[in-house]
Amino acid sequence: MEPEKTSAIVLRVVDFSETSCVVTLFTRSMGKITALAKGARRPKGPFESAIDVLAICRIVFLHKTNDSMDLLTEAKLDRRFRSSNRDLQRLYCGYYIVELLRTLTDEADPHPEVFDMAFDAIEQIDGQGQPAETVFTFECGLLQALGHAPMLTRCVTCGISKTRIDRVHFGLNDGGLLCNDCCRGKSAIKILGSDCLQLLLDRFDVTLENESIESKSDSSSKDETPLAEQKGYREARQLMNQYLNHLVGHQIRLQKYIENL
């Protein structure tokens, strides 16, 4: 069995014995894995303090082909999350990204682009990036990469195109916009204002059928207002929370700690 080498983000650490722990990692080449780290809890363990939630490290592990856990044999720290010492809100945002990776990704399902987005988001949150901007951008990118992006340009039921920015119905059960006819009798319907729809279209980088790409890019490039201050953001933030909760089937725990972003 050849050892696997890759970069990883530590998502979860659970004590297994007096000296060992079970680690959940999101790796660049193998996706999410769960591995046993023998000796990780010893004062002078073999992992050089690299096993800590939100740490980014280079790992070596043995990938088991049967139902047993992978075995982590080496971990070298590349970057430790340090903002917890100065800003609790940034720590919550980091933990929120970790929770999204844990709940929305499958074991051994590689998504290198998701790893890169998560790496960039953690780096921004740990640095000088705006938490609201960083978190929302990551959520949109994650949904697109995993095939869960909402349909915003046409009715998800009948397929009729949306041709103007105005008040719309969004079906949480359906995963996107619903026309006036198709939303009748359905549950979990949210009504979104035009500002919220425009913000979502910009963030998911999609265009309505009658809107030129040039005019879209020109209008979006002029708005340098921080995301949290833009019209429609609070409504879009609420929708994102509800949409993600619907996808995972339960309330995402860290949402309540970032609700003021």
> Count of helical segments?
6
Q: Write the H/E string, N to C.
A: EEEEEHHHEEEHHH
The side-by-side strand order for the widest beta sheet comes to: 1-2-3-5-4
Q: Percent range for helical residues?
A: 25-40%
Shape: elongated
* Overall pLDDT metric: 92
* Major pleated sheet: 5 strands, mixed, barrel
Which consecutive residue ranges, at least 5 long each, have pLDDT under 50? Answer: 213-217
Distance between the termini: 46 Å
The number of E-state strands comes to: 8
Portion in beta strands:
15-25%
Radius of gyration: 21 Å
Summing up helix and strand content along with how strands pair, one would put the structural category as alpha+beta
Q: What's the arrangement of secondary structure elements?
A:
Elements: E1 4-15, E2 21-27, E3 31-37, E4 56-62, E5 70-79, H1 88-104, H2 112-126, H3 131-145, E6 168-171, E7 176-178, E8 189-192, H4 194-203, H5 213-222, H6 233-248
Parallel strand pairs: 3-5
Antiparallel strand pairs: 1-2, 1-4, 2-3, 4-5, 6-7, 6-8
Helix pairs in contact: 1-2, 1-3, 2-3, 4-6
Summarize the structure.
By secondary structure, the protein is α+β, with helices and mostly antiparallel strands. The chain has 6 helices and 8 strands, in the order βββββαααβββααα.
Q: How would you sum up this structure, described in words?
A:
This protein has 261 residues and is α+β, with helices and mostly antiparallel strands. Among the domains are: 1-80, OB fold (Dihydrolipoamide Acetyltransferase, E2P) (Beta Barrel), CATH 2.40.50; 168-257, no CATH class. Helix content is 32%, strand content 21%. The chain has 6 helices and 8 strands. The protein has helices spanning 88-104, 112-126, 131-145, 194-203, 213-222, 233-248, and strands at residues 4-15, 21-27, 31-37, 56-62, 70-79, 168-171, 176-178, 189-192. The strands form 2 sheets. Strands 1-2-3-5-4 form a 5-stranded mixed beta barrel. The protein has a 3-stranded antiparallel β-sheet with strand order 7-6-8. The longest helix is centred in the middle third of the chain and has 17 residues, at 88-104. The radius of gyration is 21 Å and the shape is elongated. The termini are far apart.
